[in-house]
Predict the structure of Glutamine/glutamate/polar amino acids ABC transporter ATP-binding protein.
Amino acid sequence: MGSDTLLEFDGIDKYFDDTKVLHDVSLAVNEAEVVVIIGPSGSGKSTLLRCANRLETVQSGEIRIGGIPIQDGNVDHLRQRIGMVFQDFNLFPHKTVVENITLAPATVKDIDDQVARERAMDLLGDVGLEDQTDSYPNQLSGGQQQRVAIARALAMEPSLMLFDEVTSALDPELVGEVLTVMRELAADGMTMVIVTHQMGFARDVGDRIVLMSDGEIAEIGETESFFTDPETDRAEQFLARIH
Ligand code: ADP
Ligand code: MG
């Protein structure tokens, strides 16, 4: 492990019952790096992300954060360190935008209400929603809701953010505003692992690209060389099909 490795998957095998869905997956993500995971539906992208914050258990191998196996620590503490945003925003429908953001820091981290609120307002400014503080989720567009979900994850001050197809449920005209927020986060030096089908975005924001296929990593490459000169037939086929 390099000294600046933040997240490390080391030889991960994952089964659902008798079906093996991850095969010896190894991947190290460095501090401030943006790794984009692409690949066909069912290839194991979501499962891999979910293993990192213990939403799934693995049958062999080890996942480490900052060199410490994730099994060793408290799961709540782990999830404070890893922010995760999903396709479905999962905001609390009966709470306002600002309450959605302050709830976890105020309870889990025992942060003073006023401090949590000020921090939430800053985060809402960062995602361009300072004027929606007291709205309810159903008053917002999908793109706005997803930006609230990102702000909510950031409110826990995670060291790592995982994004699983966060624009897949959005109308096309709302995708850009969410990708913009993610680009800004990357530019600020956040360590990110992003599963996406948005290839233009992947190419823009990714430091490295991981192609998954049938539960395996088919190729890992620096972004430009991955897209212009892939090493494996599998990656060539994948790129040929999406172009
Ligand atoms: P992707 O995110 O790349 O589309 P997934 O990680 O969701 O792929 O799925 C990988 C494989 O694991 C698929 O074959 C899927 O059907 C299977 N799978 C995912 N979640 C479950 C589950 N909870 N129970 C059983 N099989 C699952
Ligand atoms: Mg998925």
User: Anything to note?
Assistant: The chain has one domain: 5-242. Residues 45-46, 164-165 surround magnesium ion (ligand 2) (CB under 6 Å). The mean pLDDT is 95. The domain at 5-242 is CATH 3.40.50.300 (Rossmann fold).
